[in-house]
């Protein structure tokens, strides 16, 4: 006989609320007419996210290992990560709500009559909202899952909607669908690695819980443990786009609708790093002498590769994709640090990077010509003359990515490198700083193109954003600027919340 | 120590008013100058109130302080933004705000046709505020803020008519010369902090005797460099003449009430350092002596009335600097001369402005002549200032200059005789060139070459001049009556009540010698310039005169010694930067770019190759770990 599991609903409420919102969204999609649907869907999404945020605030001081039969851990760091995801999602959903970027009917064949007629009749489907909410719920679960099965389920819950969302671009649909398919194939492939690794870990320790694996370390044939660690890591390193598991990133970032790219770049990174931090800090901490050199090498390769290849990019979305690869490398320094400072710095870094990324992709959606977004950097030349404000905002974000002082990026890099330095990984810090210098080269090159080169093509313009996009971009910008000027607000919070319960 | 909450207002009023005038734009055009003048007068009123309050207290309790906020608190460096008003700074406060206010009033009329008058008054207020901060700061760092503010204000005002490139250049020249001095001040502050761990006057004064003489000498020399910049002393004097590019009220402000007095203040305020550093003190004497003669010689040859007055300022400040170099007994006389000079120099500059006003902005004295009968009031007040500066009793300059000459002679030994003779020679030359200015301008034949007769200036310009003239007449007598000013300043500058035991020459002899010197200069000038003059400057002149006309080659010297080698150095550095550093950066960039382009080819776009890359990556990791653990 199966005994019903006992769940502490109050602690799980944030995730459950978002899931409920997603389910209601599915019903709305099925039963409501097209006129009111977008507004209602948006309201449901924002409402459930706000409710989830409120619940997170309620449980901010709680900690529990048994909220859902040992499969999730409620702790400080988990709550901070979930709150970060929810806040970023709030900004992202406003960008997504600008339906202009999405195909009217996902099932219509690109270039077909159905597609055209759906557009003409304004028969816009709104399934992106429930898909988005499912992904958010999966990401939230991913950061607090404390056994391998829950991790895997969460991974799939947030990945599957993303595969779909990546294919929904209204313009350049074939490119978008190609990206979605690539993402799906490679994602499935990496999930297989993850499962394979989980099997090895179970075989080694006889348990799937992270703390159990940690406790079992050292008794038995270590090679099983290490292979398990490596294969599980491959699955996770894929999600954060660490080299050599990064190759999907540029293609998917470029092909996906820009608001979705922003959402993926910001929130997936938070969720995946949340899980990685938890697994390495809690599950694999005992085996650090084995995995630390490997992750260090991967971090170094990732930083250098991302920074170097970004230089050669001519497309702004691809450039930001490589920039996100480089940032994954910087963030891995926080994993390698394996101390409280490293955790706190990673939390801050994720928060700051998330908002800057969302704002950057939000701005990209504004820069268009008659056929849609213009992502070719050569056509951004001289944009600073035409739209000084938007260009200045983008330049500020690039400076923040580059880690120039007085921006959040600088504070984040400084915190994460000093944590890595304290833990004795000096070579990592040296490479990190060098890679930052290389990265600064291509960020600043873009600024020079925007501001200091004479415009050659006048067909590119900055559209006036809808109120939703405007709110999202302005809010993300304000947060990015505030984090640069007064980082201690979030830095102190991150430091207070930098705690995994084992 | 007594505290007061009024000190901040002294500075805040003109500072806010300056901000209001700048920010409110054209809207303030109609009332800006009135506000600025009222504000300046209010500061003066606060100063007067504070003076009487201070006068009512006993010697030991006269200084008042006000802490505004904790400015810097890093490690062992704790600096409060706080102000201190003592017997020394009150003298400056009254001079700055008093003379400053009169100049404000004068400017209302003088600048009435300038469409940027509001901006001019904003700068004037800023100048006053900066100068007040300079004299009220209770530490070198607070002083430094005011010091830099004065530098900026002078730059803005000298270059006020920057539509003329020559004027803009003059402003830049003043600023650069001042920057050199500023570097000296900042280094002095750094050495002081390294030595004492403190930058406040009180803190350093307390521990001054604990420092080594090398450290004190270094601080003293750097402070002297700073003073040379602001006070236009040799070798940083070259900006002063060109600074005449500014509107005449600015010249009056710079020369009488603010700016050039800052160096004298700095050295006097730092008496506890200079008294312990004999080498630095000797350098102060040398600088003062050279400058007083240097300025006087230039003054003899200048035909531009404002430049002649500027040269005389250089020379008179030289007297003050020399006096500060004479040790505890000299400081009070330096300040006394500074105050009397403030009155008569301001009145003469404003008088010169009045003459220019009547002569359609002509400044060449060769084209003046006989103006006295058309502008009697200007001539009378200028004459009073003239009698004061050459040191005719009982006018104010006599009392202060005579004391400096006497103290110089009493410095003892060869040094005393040399300094005494230098100051005496300075007195001869001063009498000569000032007489020349007065004769060429107000007497003799009319040489202006057009029929318009000069008319007396409006009352708003004449009243301030008149008030300043009262100071030219009486200030010296008031300050020296019963050694009033000396006793007043004594707790600050001469706490040990030091007096020279031996007198090289009795005071009466020195006074007589000074009078004889003045008579010689005056007579020579009258003999030379009586009768009709021509409107052109003679071209066949002695080497000395042509050298003096060119400011004793100060600009040529600076160009040859500093500017050209400096430019060559910059060219070399620029090339080094281009080839070495830029080359390095460019090659790194090129390498990165080509690496990026090559690595990019890994991105084929085929899922199969991506998957292969993942497998290879995973296998590489497994192999690595296998090797590492085995």
Structure, explained:
The complex is a heterodimer of chains A (502) and B (630). Chain A is mostly helical and 502 residues long. Helix content of chain A is 72%, strand content 1%. In chain A, a hairpin with a 2-residue loop joins strand 1 (367-369) and strand 2. Chain A is globular. Chain A starts with 8 loop residues before the first helix and ends in a 6-residue tail after the last helix. By secondary structure, chain B is mostly helical. Chain B has 24 helices and three strands. Chain B has a three-stranded mixed sheet with strand order 1-2-3. In chain B, helix 14 packs antiparallel against helix 15. Chain B starts with a strand and ends with a helix. The model of chain B has no long low-confidence stretch (mean pLDDT 85). At the A-B interface, helix 7, helix 9, helix 10 and helix 12 of A face helix 23 and helix 24 of B.
What's the helix and strand layout?
The complex is a heterodimer of chains A (502) and B (630).
Chain A (H helix, E strand, L loop, with lengths): L8 H23 L5 H22 L17 H21 L16 H8 L7 H17 L3 H19 L6 H33 L4 H7 L5 H18 L8 H8 L2 H26 L4 H24 L4 H22 L2 H25 L2 E3 L2 E2 L9 H4 L1 H15 L5 H15 L3 H27 L8 E2 L4 H19 L2 H9 L6
Helix pairs in contact in A: 1-2, 1-5, 2-3, 3-5, 3-11, 3-14, 3-19, 5-6, 5-11, 6-7, 6-11, 7-9, 7-10, 9-11, 10-11, 10-13, 11-13, 11-14, 12-13, 12-18, 13-14, 13-17, 13-18, 14-16, 14-17, 14-19, 14-20, 16-18, 16-19, 17-18, 17-19
Chain B lengths: L1 E2 L3 H17 L8 H25 L7 E11 L2 E9 L1 H24 L6 H20 L3 H19 L6 H32 L4 H7 L5 H18 L8 H4 L5 H10 L2 H10 L1 H4 L3 H24 L3 H20 L3 H31 L17 H15 L5 H14 L3 H30 L16 H22 L3 H10 L13 H23 L13 H7 L4 H47 L6 H23 L1
Parallel strand pairs in B: 1-2
Antiparallel strand pairs in B: 2-3
Helix pairs in contact in B: 1-2, 1-4, 2-3, 2-4, 3-4, 3-10, 3-15, 3-19, 4-5, 5-6, 6-8, 8-11, 8-13, 10-15, 11-14, 11-15, 13-14, 13-18, 13-22, 14-15, 14-17, 14-18, 15-16, 15-17, 15-19, 15-20, 16-18, 16-19, 17-18, 17-19, 17-21, 18-21
